[in-house]
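Project standup — Tuesday

K.O.: blocked on the structure for the chain from last sprint. Re-posting the sequence here as requested.
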Amino acid sequence: MEQALILIVEDEQIARDNLSHILVREGYQTVCAENGAVAIGELKKKEFDLVLTDLRMQPTDGMQVLEYTKTKYPKTEVIVITGFASISSAVEAMQKGAFHYLPKPYNVEEVRILVRRALEKQDLTREVAQLKQQVKLQQKTPLIIGKSPKIEALKKLIAQIAPTDCNVLILGETGTGKELVAREIHHLSSRSENRFLAVNCAAFNEELLANELFGHEKEAYTGAKGIKKGLFETASGGTVFLDEVGDMPPSMQVKLLRVIQERKFIRVGGTDEIPVDIRVIAATNKDLKAEVEKDNFRQDLYYRLNVISMNVPSLSERKDDIPLLCNHFLQKFSLAQGKHIERISDTVMEILMRYQFPGNIRELENIMERAVALTEGSVIEQKHLPEDIQQMTFQIQGQKQGRFMTLDENEKDYIVWILEQTNNNKTKAAEILGIDRVSLWRKIRRFNLEL
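H.V.: unblocked you, prediction finished:
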């Protein structure tokens, strides 16, 4: 670990030398300055881990050294030392960011402890900053998984519009990942260090939605015992995501329009306007243009929200991404459930590639979570899929390797599939096939099936 570098600012040479001697013996490096002007000159050249400064000095005093240090190096701690201690100067020093205010004469052990605590605080501050940077880098990692042409085009559009800070309308079927798109826009924007808050407009009635978005004043209604900040106020500086905005009641549409236009709102039961700085991203699975034509959605609000619009493709439009998504969910749920599942069988992957996924990615995620929970070995098999998907996935293939399949080939494939569904239960399989067990055994031998 590197030695801490400490700047000592003291106009009395004996006091300056004593401080330096104490700190060098503790293993620190010191640089001494005989007044505030010299100290600021040193601070212009390099950053220090800690500054110890006398208060009364000419021509530049310790308060000016404190202000300059905290302005140029906010993470550097400053201990103010003075022989003319007063409550007002102590309060002023602390308000300007001093770590501690130390009156003279001071105890040597007290100085050692204060210096150690100040440096420990700075180490902690730096560690927190590094962790924040790591989180930020993780947040910058794309949330949208896929390499299909439509997803690549969507990613490109997100990267283009994220820095613009304009409102965005996201269109797409339920379960396609519209909120992930909104989060990606937020993470790639200048607002990424501030909050992203989401609300489902279809999940609340008008009164509850107003309370959720705008908050309320004390005693605004029965049970309102205190002030509550709404999403707009809490997310100021960040992004608000309005999911299913097409289901927002007409009166709430008027209030939302005003917030977007005026950048201010009034809490429920309040009278004071509260300024707000937010980016609005809205999403819907409805055709908002058609809703406007039916007078179900305000045209002026539609245009305010639809500064930039983007369509999130359904999973059936991006089937090439299914293997990537499956493996992502496999890793996610294996880790969450403490399992070591290595792969998905080819049969399962083939079934999933053929399935249409009316519930889109959300449905695929649920299927994979269920499969991981049911899997006892290291491979996800067909029997781990929901029964309705298993039943509807067997299709007689009309061609095989570029030629039409024979009746025997179709019969063999069908028998194999039924045996898989019944976990190789011959009695049950024969019952489903409409034959007796002896006939089934003959077919198994005839087709040379390995069971």
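K.O.: great, moving the ticket to review. The first helix runs from residue 13 to 25. The CA atoms of residues 185 and 373 lie 33 Å apart.
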